Protein 1
Amino acid sequence: MLPNQMHPSSFINMMNELIFLVEEAPEGGYTARALGVSIFTQAETEKELKANVREATECFYGDEQAPQLFAFTSFAMKF
């Protein structure tokens, strides 16, 4: 690998921010799915969801430095 190339996992570890797609769950509560990283969690309230996002992120990264900045987004489309 050339010096100016990096392994995709190295790029993920260098990110300072994670973006989560938040949706209302059909059975109630909320779900949050990270974009570009395999992190998913759910909760009954928005406050619980934020705490669960932090916990799930720390579990995903383990001993590596986890991002400390989270962005939450949601969208709805009607057809």
Note: The CA atoms of residues 68 and 77 lie 30 Å apart.
Protein 2
Amino acid sequence: MGRITSFTVKIDNEKRDLMKTFCERSGIKMQKFLEKAIVHEVKREIMKEDLYILDEYEKHGKKSASSYREFMKELGLKE
């Protein structure tokens, strides 16, 4: 585990109470619950992005990838 830091987040009281009650009933510390929830959501969002990329790839007839130069040009960047 890395260094521990603290930060303040404002959430709806009902959601906090829901989490607190769940954690108490389950014997889980809220800190661990939040850490796992954050990791889970980040992985979920990354998977959504990956699925979008795969879907776009399949929609366009599985063309081969663009060349590096074309990619840089599309991004408006110079090599």
Note: The chain has a mean pLDDT of 84.
Protein 3
Amino acid sequence: MAATVADSIAAQINGDATRPLDLGGVARTFDVTNGAAITDLEISVVIANGSIVKAGGGTMRLAGASANIASGATINEGT
């Protein structure tokens, strides 16, 4: 079965450079469950003031401005 645009991303966090996702100066854990979609969570907003830790067997994609995280990212499970 071929994937379509509708089922390629299960959840998204969007924004722009004027409204970053402020993590409050700490590492925040995103627990991403593996679902039917190709990408279970896509983050396409500037991530500021903290780092991310990815947990869970699902796929998380950093797109656009969020791909450059100055404070870093840790992948514990999944992709």
Note: Residues 1-6 have pLDDT under 50 and may be disordered.
Protein 4
Amino acid sequence: MNIDVRLIGRLEEYRETDDPLVLVEGASVADALCAIGIPMDELGMVSVNDESIPKQNRSTKVLSDGDRMVVMALIKGG
């Protein structure tokens, strides 16, 4: 299945293409993040089709063909 992925900010370095991410049917948000190779400690908000996916649900949220996933970097500072 094909997932449209948009990486925000410094996370753009993990993906050099705008082509859809190709995953097996039944893949989760966590599977997609692993396939992209973003370290977990750099992940901020993740949304699928404009719905925020909490960290605890990323391994159980199953993606569907054509979904749009946006991944933002963790915001640090003080």
Note: The first strand starts at residue 2 and ends at 7.
